[in-house]
Structures are given as C-alpha cells and as structure tokens.
Amino acid sequence: MVPVGPPLCPSEGPLGPINAHARYARQRSIVLLYGNTKTEAIFNGVLCHPGPTLCLRGWERPCTPAGFYTADKMLKAHQGAQVDLIDRLPTPFGLVRSGVAPDHPETKIVVNQFSRVASHDRCSFFGNVSLGSSVSLSELRQTYDVVVLAYGSESDRSLGIPGKDLKGVYSAREFVWWYNGHPDYCEMAPELCNSDTAVVLGQGNVALDVARILLCPISELETTDIADHALDSLRKSTIRNVYLVGRRGPVQAACTAKELREILGMKNLNVHINKTDLATSPLDDEEMKNNRIRKRVYKLLTKAAKSPLGDSATDVQNLYFNGSSGKQMAVGTGEIEETKCGLVLKSIGYKSLPIDGLPFDNDRGVVPNVKGRVLTSTDKMDTKTEQGYMWWVGLKGDLLVLLVQTCIVPKKQ
C-alpha cells in the first residue's frame, strides 16, 4: 500500500496549531504554514527568482493532480521557471488523497511522481492558504508571471427535483470525502443504521465506488487507508441493498469496464438487472459501434443479467441496476416508482465555484475559457482573454502542451 499520510482531520499540525494566516517553515522546497504572522510574508522574495514564475492554485481540492502534472511539464520545459503550488489545505495531492477509493491503492502510486515534483529545487508548496482571505487573486496576478487555476470542481450539479434537500440525501462527492478523511467532511454523519437500502443516482465510476464501499466486507476495508470514523460507521451499517439508478440505459452508463467488472465480481453479492432495461435501439447500437468502452460495459451488464442469483443468506447483499433503455436523452414517462431507503447519494456530475475577480459561467459551472485561457466575459460572442497569463486547467491533456509552449515569458520590469 502506498502511504499518502493519515486522513486529515487535525486541529494541529506538526509544528503547532494550524492557522490560515501564518508564517512558514521551509523543509527543502515544501512549505507548510503555521503561526500568526501576516500572510503577505509568504510571498516575499518570489520576484527574486532568476526566471519567470508560475503560480498553480489548487483551491478546495488540495493541489490537484492537474496542478502537479502542469508543474511537472513546466519544470521540465523551462529550466529557469519557478513554480509555487498554493492550496487551502495543509496537504497536497488533491483527488489522489480525497477522491480515490481506499481499496484502490494502485491508483495512489502516482503520489510518488507528485512527491518528486514537489521536492524539485524550483518548486515550492504553500499549504493552508485560502484564496480570498489569505491572499487575493489580484495579488497573485501582480506577484507571478503566470497564474494557473487548478482547483477542480468542488461543488455538485443540482438534482432539481422535490426532496433533494431531505435528510439522508448527500452528494457522492461528500460521501467520498467523508470516508477518505477530508477535513471538511470528517464530521459528517450519514445514517447507515436506519434502513437496509441505499439509492445511488448515477452510473458512473464514482457511483460504482460509493456502492462498492457500502457493500464491501468490513474485513476488506480494514486493510485499506479508509478513515477511522468511516470504518466505524460502516462496521455498524445495516445497508444490504443498493440501487444504482440511471436516467438513461446501460449503453449510456458513464462507468468504465474495469470499475464495473470489479463490483460485479464481489463475493456474496447478487446483481439484479431488469432484462427489459437491456433492450437497445438503433441509436444505442450505433453508439456501441463507435465506442468500444460502451460496448464492453453493455456486454458485462448483459452477462450479469443472465447470471443466476445466490441464496438469501444473511451475509448476501444485493445490487440493483435501474435505467430506461433506448433513450439518448432522459425524458419522463409520467410513471412513478417508489423505493423506500434511508440513504440517497447523488452522483450526477460536478461543477466549479466562482472566484472573486474572474468571470464565471453559472449555467455550466466553469470559468469561461478558450483552450484553458481565461476569457474576460461569459458572453459566447466575446473571445477576449484576461490580461496577463491566466489559465484554467481542465481535463484535456493538450492544454498542458499548449501551456508549456506559450505562457511562460519574463516579467516586464
């Protein structure tokens, strides 16, 4: 198992109480912030670097993988560049720490690469710095040649139906952060003992992750780095049935074959799939013809639907797949089916949050950009970019190449 540190729910750090406004203790090139000195002192000396400077800002999700990959590319491509990674939390690694399932240690191996980046002589990590209170975006732009926003999507799309705010309804992101020990959600207390049924809205990889954790034997979770508070709650859990509900059919399921194969192969698990939901339309067939992943997912679900169910012993748990077939967009039929449950986890997509000083597309939940370059307006007809070098890192790899090639220039005196 790759050690990525204990779940982060402390009130104190290794050097004393953690405070947002802080003096810093430098250990080689990694900086953690503690104490009570004014935040302005954090950035003293940045302009003395011999080459151009780059600020990579990870906001809610600590120094996201996108930020580390960008830093790695910049350090390799520009020998004079100095990269500072700035984050609200005291620890780095973002989704690797708070988003990857605890029973997937092989995925966390990437922290070895990120650690090498952070220990580079021209790279520094500033933790416990909040954008807006510790430092403003305008101050970062005045201090650095380039600012890259790599803070991910720390909010969720709205469910938009009656009851979305009822007790027991959480986003899958919140649930994942809870069992991974994210400090914002270590006090969350999902009710796992008041019902034997949970419903997960969505059929992507995150939906499969939360369903698997709910149904995973405690003996297996005990060997992972899952947060202690989550393990204690799951140990007492009475949930034995999990429904995965999708707006569309199995052909449009957003999961990968690897993730689906893992949950379908769990021991003592009965998988229930309504065979009528597997019916396909000509458009479904066309989608599978043009997308091998969707074809593999559909074949796995079809095979699971034909597999015989086990007995009804007390240690057997159940996973139900529900979704309407043959529809490329979700359209209500007017029919309503009720499922009694004590927990609902929505996994229907994420969105970013706005930052003071930047335009924001509230409908899409993103900072308006063209290939990562931040625009001055959300108006689709206005393609003017922000002055200076301001970038918003998404998920497409070609952005990193574009960023490396174009954005580093010496600061004008």
UniProtKB/TrEMBL annotation:
<keyword id="KW-0521">NADP</keyword>
<keyword id="KW-0274">FAD</keyword>
<dbReference type="InterPro" id="IPR036188">
    <property type="entry name" value="FAD/NAD-bd_sf"/>
</dbReference>
<keyword id="KW-0285">Flavoprotein</keyword>
<dbReference type="GO" id="GO:0016491">
    <property type="term" value="F:oxidoreductase activity"/>
</dbReference>
<dbReference type="InterPro" id="IPR055275">
    <property type="entry name" value="Ferredox_Rdtase"/>
</dbReference>
<protein>
    <submittedName>
        <fullName>NADPH:adrenodoxin oxidoreductase</fullName>
    </submittedName>
</protein>
<keyword id="KW-0560">Oxidoreductase</keyword>
